[in-house]
Amino acid sequence: MQRSTNPNPCLIAILLIVRSSSGVNFVFHYPPKPRSTPTHAPARRHSQYAAYTISGTSSPSSPSTSGSSDDDADDRQSRTTARGRTATERSDSGSKTRSRRRQHVKDEDEGDGKARDEKGEAVRVLGFKEEFLAGLLAPKERMCKTKFELSIDDMVFLGYPLHVRPDGTWRKQKKKRGRERNGSGGYDGDMDMEGNPDAGNTAMGNGGHEDDADDEDDDEDGESSQGGNFGNMTMFHVVFVLNPPELEYHSRTQEMFDYVVKRFARALKYEQAKDGYVWREAEKIVRLKDKANHEGISFADLWKDILDQSSLAYAISRIYIDISQSKIAHVFLNNNLGLSLQMPILTEISVMPSITEPQVPGLPLTTANSFGDDDSEGDNLLAKHFTLLFLEDVDGILKDIEAEATDSSASLARFVEACKPTMSYVSILVSKSRFLQISNSCGIPLHEIQVMARHLVHWRKARAIPPIHQRDTYIVSPNADLKKLHTLIPIYRTLFPTLQPLPKLLTLLSGKPKPFSAFIPSRAHRPAYLEILAFLIRHGLATQLRNFAWLRVTRQIKRAVAAEERRAKKANADPPLNSQPQEKEREREREKELTKMTSSISSLLSHNNDSDSEGEYEDSIILEPHQASSIESSWLEMMTRDQPPDIKALFDRIIKYLNGQHAIEKVAVREGIARKDVRRVLGAFDGFVIYARHW
Amino acid sequence: MFGGVVGTRPRRRQSESPQVVHQVPSGSVTSTPPPPPPSTSTVSSTSAANSDGNHPAPMTPPLPPTSPLPTSPPLFDFETVSEYIIPKQELCDRLVTVCTNKYRILGYPVCLEDGKYARNEFIFNFAIVLDEGVEYSTYKSVVRKVAKLFRALEEQSGFLSNEVTAMGVFALIEQVLEDLNNYSECMIPINESNTINIKLFPTYAPPPQVKAFHVPVCTVQLENLMDVNWDLTMQKIVPFIDGINSVRRISELADADYNLTRKCIEHLLYYGCLIMVDVFQFSAIYACTAEISILVQDPSLQEECQAYVSYSSPRIPFPFLLQLYTSLTQGLTLKKWCMENATKLKGIDVRRFISFGIVKGFLYRSHRYPVPAEGKVDKALPLARYLDGGHHFDEICTDLQASEKEVMGMLEGRDVQIVHR
């Protein structure tokens, strides 16, 4: 299935529906006047409703179809995110059905003349009557505590309805495990863990309940003025309304559900279980609405009041605003629980999109993404030698950390500060300082550093990169967004007023690749230039060009090995006098020889035994030199035979990196070998190594 | 797979709830009707469920012959979702899908208002049941189409509400299900004037925008596919699609309108008959991408490469080719590279050598972009619109129909930096 790399939350609205003893109630929605979506129904073009809907899901990189006004344009565009669409296009296609439906709805309205109907607009959300939507989105109990997904034409209603437990409580009491937390300032933590699909579900879903559930009611009595109303609500449902492009339907809805819908619903349930938060807020909102109805307060003022007075309504509005802009939403529930929600975004790519694939200019291009998702993951060793490139102003980040004030914020702040160049004399924003060094200097254990680094990356404050080094080579990133240059040039100029202008520098980097030090005029300029380099990398303008290597076995080596084998075979034919302690060794040797023989024999056979001709041996590449087959090992042995022992030893250590998957630049840091020595070893095997240079 | 017909009675204030009238396979939605020999479930578990409304009299759902086989439980609980399948009027004439129990129920409820029905309305829904995770967009048109057909049939002759004809609905739906699952299409005559014609089409992404400087490369033998009924422009341009000519050039050579040419190319691209590459030039710069490691690991790709790039018989050893590929680098024009490697290029067709890498994605073209040195562009100047960093020389040259030298001449004296990307 097509998956676009562009972020596109496709969020239209968020609704809150509550069922209580008095029936289903459409409590709140945000934005106040959500735009409807186009339907796929007959797309005749009327213009009278053109103003009815608002602009499209504008994705960053979208030239609109150059004036193609064919009839299927609209249909085509609704399939993927890749392109933007214009407001008129969208609204047009839906107008016919919508107008018909409005007619429809109007007819029904006449029957039950409710007070609020006078305000017309206010009662209808997304083209439906509030009451109707409420009924529709209040599923039966059996559909609760699981994903709710209902789509009407191109609009998807996605939610995680939660129903009160049979005993009237919202969460099974657990005596032992302290899952309850006095969550303050939960940047991540528990919510993330709860996000594990169904982990908590099963725990809470089945079986009997303990009797101490009443405790909660008591607690609640103290806090809430509504006392007895705690049990009034039987279900609440926060519904996210989306209009995903056709081809991205599954990925978009699933992502939204996993990262936002479910987490938010669970947090609300937690607060509801604790002291009836959701019900309290729902009542508050409904009361405000009723009051507004009586007093004739305008719709806009009413919404302002609601957002002012209800923290839940405010949280919903924040989530809508931030998530629909692909930002991180921080909300604060019940004066108590901080919750951060975000949809994961792509932060770097390793494969260049071809010219017909959707482009994401500006995304960093690198294969050095060795920042595994958890500690146990593969390249941990390397992660130690990564460093952080802050994407924002460090002071701003420090301020944010201060504002959060949790247990760990002190060490986090220390880390963020230490990540600064005071370490090695690189400058402000980056860090040639490696985590290991940082760890030493700020006295925080490495493990914690990695957790914190991951945290900063997760919250989009930083990006993990291999440390910047003036002896490494950098090029203009093939994915650089040069259209952004005109906005970057002024920023650059204020940061580095006396140095070469940005376009000039990019021109320099456009030439044949050279180590970055070649562009630094003097030693005194080095810190400033490294700072520039950090700037370029941060904005995706430059990327490191790294070397990847493979071992090539030449014909000559193969021939030499084969000749040796033949000799050995002859020698083997005379039975060796069995004696001496080396017998075992001999045995092993012989086995090895045998396997070699068989393989070489088979190769001989396949080539119809014109054994010594030139054509028989051909250069080849050893794909995985550290897992070499027996014949490959003998080739390797032949290649290293004439080298001095220290070279041989070093070669053995780095051989596992010579499979085209590892940048040679990182060998030194990972193995703790001096760069010079790495160069020396590889130099010794010059004829056998093929280098490829990419990012 | 399973299909089902769901029948429901007209909605009334406090009366019977909607009912499933037909379901294929039986028992897949409600377990009440004892199932016929279960039609074996298969691949993508598409199931058609159809709900149509019956009216006044106690319902005698036209059930298939009963055989009391124990069956698997229904796929989902109909009661739970019935309000989404036989919904209120507001949802009628819309595509409504709902997910439950890992299934997606895709339907298009239709409401007919007529005095002949009890309560003056008759709501039916022909619904399809799919696995929740299945790409379902192709079925949208199916439910829409069948709903409209049934509506027409019902309006014409009471096809669904008339008990005689309603009997045939089960068989009809069963056949739709079987045919769609087995052949992805069906053609079922209903009466003299009505036929169900359905074909499942995959949904493709819209084709990317074609630019004048793009060079289309065929992935199929277009000449063999083409017949006299093809579009005229298409017939004109196809002979010129040779992997060398740019779209602009093709339109010139074929003497066809450029915009029509572009549309044709987009069309071919949509169906995957083409891939796009850059113009091949010796003044261009090529370099490796990270995909090069895939080439090294894939022997069959290597053989393809060896066969494609050499024009003489002796096969060129792959490590040798790899070394050549990796010696292409940023900042080095192909011309210079050829001179540096002149001795090694024996038997190698350089154009094919490069285009193989581009097509397979392990080479990329490093384009030259003019950018203003001061960031701001004086809008009054000619060529100013090309200087925002979004246009490379290929594009400017094809646009202006000028050579690179001429363009450079036009930029002479302007404070412009050339950035290679």
UniProtKB/TrEMBL annotation, chain A:
Top-level division of the source organism's lineage: Eukaryota
Keyword tags: Meiosis, Signal
Acidic residues composition bias: residue spans: 211-223
Stated family: Belongs to the NPR3 family.
GO cellular component terms, semicolon-separated: GATOR1 complex; vacuolar membrane
Protein name as it appears in the record: Nitrogen permease regulator 3
General function of this protein: Mediates inactivation of the TORC1 complex in response to amino acid starvation. Required for meiotic nuclear division.
Membrane-topology descriptor: Peripheral membrane protein
Signal peptide start and end residues: 1-23
Native source organism of the sequence: Tuber aestivum (summer truffle)
Keyword check for rRNA-binding: no
Disordered, as annotated region: 54-118, 169-230, 566-618
Composition-biased stretches (Basic and acidic residues): 86-95, 582-595
Keyword Signal: yes
Localization terms from the record: Vacuole membrane
Ranges of residues in domain GATOR1 complex protein NPRL3 C-terminal HTH: 629-689
Residue ranges with Low complexity bias: 55-68, 599-608
One GO-annotated biological process of the protein: negative regulation of TORC1 signaling
TrEMBL record, chain B:
GO terms (BP aspect): negative regulation of TORC1 signaling; positive regulation of autophagy
GO terms assigned for molecular function: GTPase activator activity
GO cellular component, one term: GATOR1 complex
Top-rank lineage group of the source organism: Eukaryota
Stretches the record annotates as Disordered: 1-72
Membership in a protein family: Belongs to the NPR2 family.
This protein's name: Nitrogen permease regulator 2
